[in-house]
Design a protein that fits this description.
The complex is a heterodimer of chains A (120) and B (180). With 120 residues, chain A is mainly alpha-helical. Helix content of chain A is 75%, strand content 0%. Chain A is built from four helices and no strands. In chain A, helix 2 runs antiparallel to helix 3. The longest helix of chain A has 32 residues. The mean pLDDT of chain A is 88. With 180 residues, chain B is mainly alpha-helical. Helices cover 71% and strands 0% of the residues of chain B. Chain B contains seven helices and no strands. The longest helix of chain B is centred in the middle third of the chain and has 25 residues. Chain B is globular. The chains are: A mainly alpha (120), B mainly alpha (180). Chains A and B meet through helix 1, helix 2 and helix 3 of A and helix 1, helix 2, helix 3, helix 4 and helix 5 of B. Chain A: Its main location: membrane. Chain A: This is Cation:proton antiporter subunit C. Chain A: Pfam families: Oxidored_q2. Chain A: It comes from Halobellus rubicundus. Chain A: Keywords: Membrane, Transmembrane, Transmembrane helix.
């Protein structure tokens, strides 16, 4: 178990972040905290990808035409760069919807919104 | 010798603690500040994992733009606050999280060790192809940029489309507001 901590720590942190994110999405009744949970979940996945391409002692993949050094794999970095930008777009749309929901219901609490909907 | 250095372990532990704070803090403004700290910690972790491009994007987009978006949102809405500093624990959600985390944990042991030079990603033909041919074929020294803008250029075009679609969606959703 201690051995696993030393060699697979990044993967344990990825599981922890995914768990914390899922908890935020499901447990919080505040809509803004739910979106924070979504972002934490997403970063957990990013950590999994970037760690998978990492090589101990590897340099960032910036080559100078001569290849004697070890470089880390560039492909996970590219995928995650795209995912970060898509993630922020998603967050922007979600937060815009939150502002609209607040204007319509006057609250950001999930339970309160459900009550207002039932009363209509 | 372990591949997980002390610096990386400290930064990742800091990220987990700030993530927990961001979820459990009751006051949304406090949660947003904790989330910004979390993004910053993760950006440093990318740097330690030899991913400077991802670190720059995370610092600018994750810690920067996302935080501003959250702050604008709470400026336009409410900030629930009370006597309690933290939210009480929701045990039904804990059960769901335990199931998911337990399932994922069973797979962790089968993954290659962090930083292993023989991991499938490190020894993949695609990785070797990009590292060997990116500079001769595209003339770009940074392989990440070469892949992003040349080899996977259509993918990046798709990404730009997503950003435009998101911008249009935000404008449509907030259409009737005075500030659009």
């Amino acid at each position: 178990m201690i051995d696993l901590l030393a060699t697979h720590y990044n993967y344990l942190v990825y599981v922890a972040l995914v768990g914390i994110g899922l908890y935020g999405v499901t447990a919080s009744s505040n809509l803004v905290t739910k979106i924070i949970g979504l972002n934490v979940f997403q970063v957990g996945i990013f950590l999994f990808f970037v760690t998978s391409g990492y090589i101990q002692g590897g340099s960032p993949p910036v080559v100078h035409g001569h290849g004697a050094e070890t470089f880390v794999s560039p492909l996970p970095h590219v995928l995650i760069l795209t995912a970060i930008v898509v993630g922020v777009s998603l967050t922007a749309v979600a937060l815009a919807l939150v502002v609209r929901i607040y204007n319509a219901y006057g609250t950001l609490d999930e339970e309160a919104i459900r009550e207002v909907q039932l009363n209509d | 010798m372990s591949a997980v250095t002390a610096e990386l372990a400290v930064v990742l532990t800091f990220s987990v603690l700030t993530a927990l704070a961001a979820i459990f803090l009751r006051d949304v403004l406090n949660a947003i500040i904790a989330f910004a700290a979390f993004s910053f910690g993760i950006a440093v972790a990318w740097l330690l994992l030899a991913a400077p491009d991802v670190a720059l994007t995370e610092a600018a987009v994750g810690a920067g733009i996302t935080t501003v978006l959250f702050l604008v949102t709470i400026a336009k809405t409410v900030r629930p606050s009370g006597e309690r500093l933290f939210e009480p624990i929701e045990w039904r959600s804990v059960a769901v999280v335990v199931v998911l985390a337990g399932t994922l944990l069973t797979t962790v042991r089968s993954l290659p060790a962090v930083g292993s030079p023989t991991s499938p990603v490190a020894t993949s033909r695609i990785t070797e192809y990009y590292l060997e041919n990116a500079y001769p074929e595209t003339g770009v020294e940074n392989v990440v940029t070469a892949v992003l803008a040349a080899y996977r250029g259509f993918d990046t075009l798709g990404e730009a489309t997503v950003v435009i679609a998101a911008g249009l969606a935000v404008l449509l959703v907030l259409r009737q507001e005075a500030y659009v």
